[in-house]
Sequence to fold (269 residues):
Amino acid sequence: MKRIRFYKIVFISLLLGAWAFLPASTVMAQEVVKYSCSNQVYAAFSKEYIEAFTKATGVKVDVKTASSDSCLYNLGRGFCDIASTARKLYKRHELYGYSEFPFCKDPLAVIARKECGVDSLTAEQLQDIFAGGIANWKEVGGADLPVMIIVPGEDTAAHKNFRRQVMKHKDIAHDFMAYNSTMVIEAIKYFPCGSVSFISQGAAMHHPEITTIKIDGLAPTDKDYPYYQEFFYVTKGEPTGNVKKFIDFTFSDEGNKMIEQYGMVPIPR
Fold:
C-alpha cells in the first residue's frame, strides 16, 4: 500500500513538473474570456472576430448569445467578464459601475422575401406596413401577396430601436413574434412569400436569398441611410487583462476590416 502511494506521489509530481515547462503559448491557450454576446452582434460578425482574436492572442472565448438585456443581466451577476449590446446603456447603469465602449454603427435593415416584388419604400409606407395599415404588397407597387409582419421579441434591442426610430414610439403590428432578434431571418426564409421584418444589416448580409429594402431610395449600405443601431461592449468597471485585449482587438485594423466587410461602420475609439 505504501509503495502504491509512493508511485502516485511521483506521478503527480511529474505531471506538475511537465506543466511548469510547457511553452508560454500553450499556457496562454488555457486562458478564457467569458463573453455574453448580443444575438445581433454575434450574427453580424462575432464568430469571425472571435476566431481571429483567439488566433492572434491564444486567448479562448467562451461565448453565450442572448438578448441585450439578458447580456447585461449576466454581466451584473458575474456570469461573464464582458457583454455586448445593440443599444446604449440606461443612465441607471452608470450608478452600478458599468462602462460602455461603442465600436460599430450598424444599419437597421428592413428585410423581405424577393417574391414581394418591392425593392424600395418611403419612410411613410414603411410605417404604414408595420402599423398594420397596408395588407397587400400590391398597395405599394409590389406583387399580389398578403403582407406578413414578423418581428423580434419586444425585449430585444432590434425591436426597441425600430420602434423608436421608424415607428416614432407607435406600436408595431405583427403576425408572428420571434423569440430573439436573429430568429426573424429563419422565419423570413420559411414563412410565406409576403413576409417582412427588420434586423442588423451585418446579420442580413450572411443570407443572400433575403432582400433588403431601400428606404426613400437609400440602401442600408448608403452613407445617408436613416436607421442605425450602435453596438457596444460593456464591462463592470474599466477593462483589464484579457478583456482589455478583447476590446482593443476590435479597434485594430483587423477588427475594423471585419466590421466593414459586412456593411457596418467602425466607431473610432
About this structure: Residues 107-215 form a domain with the D-Maltodextrin-Binding Protein; domain 2 fold (CATH 3.40.190.10).
